[in-house]
Amino acid sequence: MTKIFLLLSLAILAGAESHIAQASAQNAESRIQYRKNQYSFDAGFGENATASRSITRAIQSAGEDNIDFVRIVTYVTPTSSEENDLALAEKRAVDTKWLIAEKFPKLQGRVIYETRRSSREGDVSIVTVRLKNEMERKTFTLANTPSTPSRHQASRRRTVKSLPLDITSTTGDMFKDVRTDNPDVYALEAHLDYKVNDYTFDPDYMSNRYVLRALDRAIDEVGIDNIDSVLVVSYASPEGTVEHNLFLAEKRAIDSKWFILKQYPELRNRISHEGRGESWDGLRQLVEQDRNITNSTRYQLLDIIENNYVDANTKKALLKKIPNDPMVGNVYQYVLKNHYPSLRGSTMLSFYLKPQQVEEPEPQEVVIVPVETPVVKEEQVVVEQVAPIEEPVEEVKKKAKETIFALKTNLLYDVVTMVNAEIEVPIGKRFSIMVEDVFPWWEFQKNKYALQNWEIGVEPRFWFKKWGNDDRKLLGFFVGPYGMSGKGDIQWDKDLCYQATYLSAGLSGGFVIPLGKKKHWGNMEFSLSAGWLRANYQHYQPAADYSCLIRDPYNAGQVTYFGPTKLKVSLVIPINFATKRAARYAETHSEDK
Fold first, then answer.
1. In this structure, are residues 334 and 300 in contact, taking their beta carbons and an 8 Å threshold?
2. What is the pTM of this model?
3. What is the DSSP letter of 439?
4. What stretches of 496-547 adopt beta strand conformation (E)?
5. Of 198, 271, 193, whose CA–CA distance to 240 is shortest?
6. What DSSP character marks residue 329?
7. β-bridge mates for residue 492, sequence order
8. What separation in angstroms does the CA of 215 have from each of 45, 83, 204, 265, 560?
9. Which tens digits make up the pLDDT trace of 272-325?
10. What is the pLDDT of residues 33-50, one digit of tens each?
11. d(CA 578, CA 582)
12. Which residues make Cβ contacts (< 8 Å) with residue 188, sequence separation at least 6?
């Protein structure tokens, strides 16, 4: 009996210890300290060694796959220059991020950071590990830093004509060439260089000083108010580890961004940065332009560089195995010496300028000189009556069209911002199939309010009125089964905060009337659906700053419902095309019409 009691006690203690370890991993919070005006991690400073071990133990005990995200909040002691403070804080945040990402590569895309100025906290980075039982809000924004360009902006920028910054030509000629090529929009690009394995910008390194001078002249001529946006993109040469090169590229992009902001503080809300890692495209261009190697060597290099079926580390190993070239000897050493230096730390500054305003020419006064017209004697013209010509049958055939499918939208959903679309295809004389999609996806006031829903359904229909091969299909009364599924997230401050997934099936019925009698351009549909619905719901509580959502484990469950499920007042736009069937139908039913 004593042995059984002892075993039970040990099991309880082990479970409690495991629960405590999991809770500590979930709430792990470590502080990394930085020296004044320094942004590189120093393991010997303060309690950094202990903090580093604490972060490592927390991640290892939880498991990389069980971690939802790692959050870094970097504080800096305020000084007289807010821009210098924010630049220093962002560099520290990225340094802390890559300190974690290099040791745990799987977490690279799940490390987020913020920057703040605070005299109470001092120069520290607070690292918090969160497990997957807490829900991260859809998007996290970097505090006090310009946001990255949206997809719409990025797609627009890719169409902009851009020219490299030529330091040998005058800025006037350079911009004249760009405007001539594309008078509506144009761009300016400049190239900066960094030292090997370094991410601190040196204006005196290589040709940086000349590029900055030419950039000053160009901006003075154009005017800083005419610059729409600035994108800073940094790369690293394809040597070393992929993770370290990503780290270097991102740090160089941030460093270049803040250097430009010091020179031009007016661009603060118009500049964004992006670190893209290893520059394989740049290496490909250099190899294509190299005339010191044989064609055979060039083809082998390009085959390896453009091979998308192997990873970067395999490419680097294959480059070292290329046979010697009769012109340059060891190919890898030649590429390392002649091409990699220009790829190390390459940073591209793209200045996108606002479209030119073309002045309209002033209207010129037009003088009209009267001209005498000769007098023509009137002659009597006899007009014979001609019998009216009936419209030929061929003309009726050309005008005949039939409805191939119809596009719809539920106006009741649209009124409450639940954007939706439907498509219905007629089949035979009495059947059709309809597919609908509801997809509102918005949030505002910094994640305080949200309506995010995605629903898709299908509905076969039987029509009581038989139709012909013309443009008046999908009219009258209908009935049919339906099935749909979806998921959603609705939040209204902290009062209404639920996420759910659901399934529904049942029966639909309704009728459709035309909006035009002579010109059939659209229909109106009125329908009601009823049936079974089952939903799995989860309540959550937003954090104080709405940056993340925390599940409420005591408010979750499943609901089953029977009754009305959908109500529709839909605008229907039939899509009609001329077909041979419609022509034959119009010919045989022309008298009826």
1. no
2. 0.42
3. -
4. 496-514, 523-542
5. 198
6. B
7. 449, 496
8. 40, 21, 15, 15, 66
9. 888 888 888 888 888 988 888 888 888 889 888 888 878 888 888 888 889 898
10. 888 878 788 888 888 888
11. 7
12. 162, 163, 165, 174, 175, 178, 218, 222, 350, 351, 353
